[in-house]
Amino acid sequence: MPAGVFKEKYEELMGLLRYPIHWAALAAGTALLLALPLLIGPYYTSLAVTLAVFTVGAIGLNMLTGLAGQISLAQGALMGVGAYATVFIAAALHTNIIAAILPAAILTALVSTLLGLPSFRLKGYYLAMASIAAQMILEYIFSVIDPDQYTPVPVDMKTLGPISLAQTTTQYYIILGCAAIAALAAANIGRSAIGRAMKAVRDNDVAAEIIGIDVARVKALAFALAGFFAGLAGGLYALTVTGIDWTAFTLDTSIEYLAMVLVGGPGRIVWGSLLGAMLIRTGWSMLEASLSDTLTMMGLGILASASKYIVLGALVAAFLVLEPEGLIGILRRVKEYLRLWPYSY
Amino acid sequence: MDALSLAVNTGFQALVLGMIYAALALGYNMVYRASKAINLAEPELVVFAAYIAFIAFSWYGLPVPVSFLASLAAGFLIGVVLERLLARPLRGRPVVALMAATLGAYYVLRGVSMVASRGFEMGSLGIPEVYQAVGPLRVSLSDVVAAGLSSATILAVIMLHRFTRLGVAMRAVSEDPFGATAYGLPVRRLTMLSWGIAGAVSAAAALALAVKAQVGPTLDFYALKALAASLLAGLDSIAGVVVGGLALGFIEQFGSLLLDPYMPGLGSQLAFIAMLIVLLVKPYGIFGTERIERV
Lengths: 345, 295
Hints:
The complex is a heterodimer. Chain A is an all-alpha fold.
């Protein structure tokens, strides 16, 4: 009788749910997530909705940055492409938003591939340069098609058959479902042949080329995937708002996305992105909501808005220099420490 | 204005703006030569340096040359600090990491300049508005100062690289850091100096911009556009930035003249379109060395 859990097949070793504790965590997590809107009230539910939306976008960027080793500063604008495309497609075809999200995400993937096209054959930072140009050009296009900074998302589009999705709670369940599917897909892409090819390109592109990986194709694919997830996030975002304002998709949004990935944990596609989005997006808005009033009353209103930039920027730089694995790396060390406690190794 | 004077004046503006772009591009290229990465903190470094001059001039009442010097010193210092805090610990890691870290610095610098300028107060440096007509051309004092400042900066850096021992040492470090170490060159100090000079050059370009336009938080947009000039020249060229910057200036000015009646604001986006085209056609730029990879 073996003492412990032994894996005999490759499938068992590579499974997402390997140990009993994984199954228990899945059951408990699912139950918790389903019951969440009842437990935390409407304000925190809306925060959770935003968190889910931005996690999807961060997952896309994490595949590009963490797996393929490229940085992109266009994730915010691509999310905007997804949001606008969703609304316009839904309006043109007289369908609901949910039906329009998938075509919009595919369209976004095409746009991102097209804009990244010049840089796929080049090394290192060239994709970053192309993405900056893409971000600025897309911002300009948004400002042309949406000069009022308000493209309404009609309530009668926010339906799924007979169900209305105007309520935060119903939005929560729909978006949670979409985010869960997206996360599962991303996790599977990460551990499939495509994911391994991306990692090879990240670690040494010359060596990757030699073992027969088409580096340009893998980079293009990674950028397209990042675009697809950004488009998906944009579509889900359109579902949550009453009107789309393109100033939500500026260079700052892209930088925030990059910050989520780098602080959360590059390469840990799902959990790293979730942690990053939790800290950078949700954590920040909660902190801001509680602090900015006090600071403004003390006459330090500037500090309240400036501190966001200073703290975020310092976090990104500090994590890159001191903890390249991100928050998830810290968590893993804590977990190891607790597992081995009271021994040090 | 008739067509001739319109063309002449637009050409002159393109020249002035082109020299500013060239100086901004030189800031990117100096960093690229030293650390093989693009300093994405430069756009906000430009804003910060412009505000240092503005604060020194209009809040503390210092004379214009002194406030300019203060701004240059601040730029140099920020460059050195960025090298010490980011570029040095990230040596040997993928260049993408350093770029992302400078992006963090971009955010920090924006926050700092926001606080320092009491929420981005707008203002101008004390250059009087004086015009002089030369034939069909209308020249203002601020144009002359901006063009002179950026040209002088570029010229100084070119001279430094070409004619001094220090410049030769910096070239050696950029060409082959290991070889330079073997010859006993202080590679770390020279890299730091390169970043410092890049910061000071960016500050000089910021001053030129502040004289030409206005001190404000949107100056970072010019520095972002200058990335196109940098790419066009080739990221590791020094004198090439003049060609890249002027090309960008002319493309933007005449492009705006032709296109803006149909699509307002499209002219200022031409830089980014040019960037994508350069990446597609000639990614190493006109004067950049093409990288040949060995396995």
